[in-house]
TrEMBL record:
Catalysed transformations (reactions): O-phospho-L-serine + H2O = L-serine + phosphate; O-phospho-D-serine + H2O = D-serine + phosphate
CDD domains to which the protein is assigned, alphabetical: HAD_PSP
UniProt cross-references to Pfam families, sorted A to Z: HAD (PF12710)
Pathway participation: Amino-acid biosynthesis; L-serine biosynthesis; L-serine from 3-phospho-D-glycerate: step 3/3
Protein name: Phosphoserine phosphatase
Biological source species: Sneathiella chinensis
Amino acid sequence: MQAHGAETGAPVWLREGVAADLIFDGTVQPENLSDILNDVDYCLQPTLHRRKKLLLADMDSTIITVECIDELADYAGVKDKVSAITEQAMRGELDFNEAFRARVAMLKGLEESVLQRTFDERVTLTPGARTLIQTLRQNGAYTALVSGGFTFFTSRVRDSVGFHMHESNELLFENGRLTGEAAEPILNSAAKLDNLNRLIAELGIDRQQSVAIGDGANDIPMIEAAGLGVAFHAKPKANEAADATIRFGDLTTLLYYQGYTYTEFFSD
């Protein structure tokens, strides 16, 4: 740090040997740190408003470890086709709405009961998810799960993890089977950004008191607009848009970024 014009004191350990604060005066550009911090997660930020009052989180491949639409497609026998489109959409190579409709159409005829089977057999929480949300709630933050996925899954993940709210897309059924369509309008990147802006206004907080976390191109607008935008094990475009990335750690890394010590972590 000294070589980049910043004087630091001794590290303040948030958890011994795992996470530490380095407080410094001066100006350091993030790109100047990549050569010395290329194998650790770090967040360069001001101390003001460090502990956030609002969190918006993506669900698939962020709060949970899978893409639910890909897992549903597996039961429909079209996982390879759907997963390929998912990957392109997450990289920002396809229009999200068009990619979403194309993938949902491939699920036509799938029995409604398969959704619960998918949740039970395939959906796993990302390590640290519940601790992240419960710790933020214990400290007065509002937590929102906003997903381009499906309400069947976001409602259950909300309850499992402890989010205040969830918003996503509603699959349509007829005679107990998927119609191959979802209710309009589609919850896309613009809707995620709208949720961020709405909640900032409703809570009466400074934008710098908000944090957004996600992994794909659909998350970029909210990542860019939040006080702290974080890319989690993300695609390249999301990494480039974010203020900070989490490339190695689990979701509790976002607590360390906010200055929480390990002894402050909460999970009931």
